[in-house]
Amino acid sequence: MAEETMPSPIRQKPVYRFAPSPNGSLHLGHALSALLNHDMALENGGRFLLRMEDIDQTRCTPELEQAIYDDLGWLGLEWERPVRRQSEHFDDYHAALDRLIEAGLAYPAFLSRGETKTIVRAFEAQGTAWPRDPDGAPLYPAIDRQRPQAERAAMQASGRQHAWRLDMEKAIRIAGSKLFWRENGDGQTGEIEALPALWGDVVLSRSDAPSSYHLSVVVDDALQGITHVVRGMDLFHATAIHRLLQQLLDLPQPGYHHHRLILGADGRKLSKSEGSTGLSSLRSEGKTPSDIRRLVGLL
Length: 299
Ligand code: GLU
Fold this sequence. Notes:
It is a single chain. By secondary structure, the protein is α/β, with parallel strands linked by helices. It contains eleven helices and ten strands. Strand 6 and strand 7 form a beta hairpin. Helix 8 (213-223) packs across helix 9 (239-248). The longest helix is centred in the N-terminal third of the chain and has 16 residues, at 28-43. The radius of gyration is 21 Å and the shape is globular. It starts with 14 loop residues before the first strand and ends with a helix.
């Protein structure tokens, strides 16, 4: 291959993205994420993309999306257009899901949230804790994974609603060797070993939404050529799932930077309903974009 056509990591422009869900308004935590992505892109001669993670069409609205553009514009950020909206790319996520189904790595999951809760409660009533994921949610019971093929087919044929879940044990086996990701954030750094087993059989698509966050985030990061994922520390452990899905779907792996979180007065992570730290209320109180940079510790 002639040298000038050879792909070179040195010549590749870094690509950053801020990927909010328009299901609420932006707060100081989002501002830190957006500003970091934007500033790093600028410092490194890279590109800054914005992505609307609006898979959940029941909670995401055009008004909230517009408010995000307004807040980011007010902060002084500029991003490339058009903005990728996940709701316009369901085919991409379906194709990825189909690959996992064809490889025998995904199974239809019929249990509702309520049924799962009942199973977990009944089990814990006997005095043993049900295993939980790093976010504290109970792992999905094995019932659907272990369901005999004929029964599974009959349930699907009857039109019963179901999600698709990853057969985690099998996926880890197929992925082969241990997986790592490159971390350069505010906590542990270096080559981090991915431990996706901690999450159990994660959801890939829901009965009421055609994809899951985990599946669409890895598909989009690959399709948009993202080289650097800069996001909150709350997604540090979930990166293990993303690394595994990248491996299974032959997707390139970006580098990761998980940044500190901005906590509320109660010491907890900010939520989207947090009025006092919402960017629009701070703006109407007369705060300036520089005040926001100061408040999130960037000035
Ligand atoms: N949409 C996610 C959120 O708003 C961010 C996902 C990501 O940066 O990977 O928390």
